[in-house]
Fold this sequence. Notes:
A hairpin with a 2-residue loop joins strand 5 and strand 6 (140-143). The protein is of the alpha+beta class. The protein has one domain (2-216): Umud Fragment, subunit A, CATH 2.10.109.10. The model has no long low-confidence stretch (mean pLDDT 87). The chain contains 3 helices and 12 strands, in the order αβββαββββββαβββ.
Amino acid sequence: MENKSKTKEIMEWVYCIVIAVIIVLLIKTFIGVPTVVKQESMYPTLKQNERLWLNKWEANFNKLPKRGEVITFEAPNTAKGTTALDLNHVDLSNPVAPYEYEPGNIITKFIYNVLEIGKVSYIKRVIGLPGEHVEIKEGAVYINGEKLQEDYLQDTVITESMGGLYTDIVVPENCVYVLGDNRPGSKDSRFFGCIPVKKIESVAVCRFWPLNKIGGLVAK
Length: 220
């Protein structure tokens, strides 16, 4: 009887742990997750080791983000260094970032998309929306011929092409054009093209660390 009681107790603990793990994964996948800033491409808006809360709810339904929102997305192949692009291998009539890897079955999808093992993500700001003509010229961003007012940037920031090939394009449908706030130190849509909405993982909604900088990341 004692052994049965111990076995029952162990199984109850196993069930509790499994249920807890499932709940955590569901929250992480469909609702949101905290993250630590590891890149410098959004400096000084976001600095290394700051903590953010990422909202994943809308991204799961492929909702188009707003201009000015800070998003995370799966890094394109060119961003991860697996593909080198030049003028002979760029289709400016369809400037969509390349994604060659796609998990083949439910297990690899779970490992890649849920556990995010082997997955690289970037954090940038949404600049151009579907159908808009984006130009990088005269040290600034122009949308449909009008200079974009970017109050979130420091006054000294100049937006240059930095040798990127996607600096005078029309954003395709269901895609967004993204840039880092650290324009001289950011690999973004200037280099790898527009990000498909389905590759967007989350919207960064607020910063909760350090304590003196707690607050929302409002699109302007």
